[in-house]
Amino acid sequence: MPNTSNPASTRESGKAGPITAVGFAVLLAATALAALIGRADPVAGPRVHVVVIENMRYSPSILDVPLGDRVVFKNHDLVPHTATSKGAEPFDSGPLLSGQEWGFTPARPGTLRYNCSFHPTMEGSLVVGEPHKLAAP
């Protein structure tokens, strides 16, 4: 009969006990986490920013967007809406039915004001700034 009070007897039999399995899982998780933390993305590339249309408003109503990033409007309201520019850089989503989305990438820096052509009191702004910079090594 094996000696179960001695942890060495379990190891000698070739069977890993629960502590060894847990230790291995912790080591594996720590190694994966270290790899993720140590991995630097050399270039912070374009991102997608979401503006949710809900409760008859844009959320967020003002959004900072680096040049080159994409903006997606998602209609979560029950009624159709648009995202239609009111100034320098023209854009227009056209009617977005409930559940639909539309996106675009601003072409130049500046503040882009927009509203819903169906509900003109719904207003928002995109503040388009400098593009992403190279990440430090």
Could you characterize what this model shows?
With 137 residues, the chain is α/β, with parallel strands linked by helices. The protein contains two helices and eight strands. The protein has a four-stranded mixed sheet with strand order 2-1-4-6, with no helix packed on it. Strands 3-8-7-5 form a four-stranded mixed sheet, with no helix packed on it. β1 (48-54) and β2 form a beta hairpin. The termini are far apart.
Please tell me what the overall shape is.
globular
Order of helices and strands: HHEEEEEEEE
Number of helices: 2
Percent of residues in beta strands: 25-35%
- Mean pLDDT over the full residue set: 79
Computed over alpha carbons, the radius of gyration is 27 Å
Number of separate strands: 8
Give the end-to-end Cα distance, rounded to a whole number of Å.
59 Å
What percentage of residues falls in helices of 4 or more residues?
10-25%
Give the spatial strand order of the biggest sheet. Answer: 2-1-4-6
Topology:
Elements: H1 7-12, H2 18-38, E1 48-54, E2 57-59, E3 62-66, E4 70-75, E5 84-85, E6 101-104, E7 110-115, E8 123-129
Parallel strand pairs: 1-4, 3-8
Antiparallel strand pairs: 1-2, 4-6, 5-7, 7-8
Task: Jot down its keywords.
single chain; 137 residues; four-stranded mixed sheet; 20% helix
Concise summary:
The protein has 137 residues and is α/β, with parallel strands linked by helices. Helix content is 20%, strand content 29%.
